[in-house]
Write a structure and sequence with these properties.
Elements lengths: L15 H12 L8 E7 L5 E7 L4 H10 L7 H22 L10 H7 L5 H5 L6 E2 L6 E2 L1 E5 L6 H11 L7 E5 H23 L13 H12 L2 E5 L6 H16 L3 E6 L17 H10 E5 L17 E2 L4 H15 L5 E6 L5 E8 L4 E5 H6 L4 H10 L2 E7 L7 H16 L3 E6 L3 H4 L5 H5 L2 H4 L10 H26 L6 H38 L2 H11 L3
Parallel strand pairs: 5-8, 5-9, 6-7, 7-8, 10-15, 13-14, 14-15
Antiparallel strand pairs: 1-2, 3-4, 11-12, 12-13
Helix pairs in contact: 1-6, 3-6, 4-9, 7-8, 8-9, 9-10, 13-14, 14-19, 18-19
Length: about 550
Amino acid sequence: MLSKMMINNSNRCHSCLRWMMLHVHKYRPAHCDSIRRSVSHSHEDRAHTKVTVNVKSKVTDFYKEIVNKGTLSYDEGQYQVATYLDKLRSVAEKYLAQPPPMPSSTSSAETSSSTQSVSTAAASSASKPTSDVSSSTRRLRGLYLHGPVGTGKTMLMDLFFSLVEAPPGTKRRVHFNDFMLEIHKRIHQHNQRWIQSRGREVHLDLSPERDSIRCVAADISSEARLLCFDEFQVTDICDAMIMIRLFDELWLRGVVLVATSNRPPEDLYLNGLNRQYFLPFIAQLQRHCVVRGIGVEKDYRLDGEPLVDNYLVPNSDANLARLRDLFSAALGGSPAGPVEVPVMMGRTLQLAAADLQRGVCLVDFHSLCVLERGASDYSALCQHVHSVFMHGIPELSVLNHNEARRFITLIDAIYNANVRLVFCADQPPLQLFRELSAAELSGGDTLGTDHSWAGDRGDYSIREERLLRGAQQTLHRVSESLSVGGESSSSSDEEDVQVEVNILEGELASIQELGFAFRRAASRLVEIGSRSYMQRWREKHRMS
């Protein structure tokens, strides 16, 4: 029995299955019914285990074959999810082969208000893929898979995505950060076209064609009817408000959502500003997707065999000199100089030392994470280089949460693009992100006088730090008053406190999400420095 197999777990990288699957998808023509590929995985002894994959096989068959080869350790939680994905794949292939359903004449707002609660029938069918039977056109329910970092969620979703036989142009896999960035860009472009064509009268135009979110959703649904999202999360009020309308329109058009996340649906955008307006989206998500926990706690990324010199601790002169030597070796004798990388909408990213022909750059933490950067900058960087050498990374916490958030977004971009990262930091990956105690958050005069982490950003960062501590103190006082039952205050005082909390909630939602993001980034940093990750990097970029 497979469940009784005992496999040595030492130094085996759990993410190898994701690498194999990506290679199958990369070389497989969309119109082929069947194809066989041989892929290999490098063990610590550098021996190669050949695995032959038939793309018509089931997700569970693929999973069992790799386990039997000894490349992957069996995990019951992963196998149960793979079993469900086989069911979903079978139904999805039939669903995608049919013409897409036409959205009804009912507006998305009316549809949303009428379907905020999950029906009893849908809730009872959570163990199998079903269709939404509340409308005249049946729509397939997708899957929302959540669980801790490094437990194989992305691996299984990518495997499912590659094995789904669908007509060309009907499925798409994308990181959720990149997807929302694309949505913002499309909305901006749509609005600009209308302004150019209508001028000042554009705001008087109430036609459906003027609705940018509706038009963008129509374009997205025409490009893909199966959307697979990695790292589904909501931390920004702009994204939250757009998603309510956007996904209503996508679901009306029969788009199927398969997503991975570190949070269950009910915790999305937790404590976010005006979260009550986001709750209907959560109800719709639970209606249109089967919600399932992966049931795995172990972070398999930590099993990878680390390589020497992939990260250097601490930020010392000797380590910086070593990093520069590694950068020079990657240049292969070519000169490096200032470079402008095109980003989007006419913006550029300045790199102080890079050679885009060689695909390498040397950057510091300040230029990429202290200055105002975003996902589009990091995506552009990873499109132009395959190796990033970075120095000056400090210990990170919520006190420098803006820098921490940018660094986490950078790590996500590097990881998803399979770019090499060599860095100097104050701490090793698992200690780089520090969760502060309640005493440190509440601050006090002693902690409050230390602003060395603010660098040259001026008084704004100091005020922001004090605001964060004020938010924590305010929430603590309100919580204590409610739970202990202290003296009641006047109605006007209660209103003042509520207003103050609401103003800070938008920032707190993003800050509180950092706890999950910290663990994900640390886990990915460990894998980025592993032998198996570098093996995939060499394969992708054809490095010797």
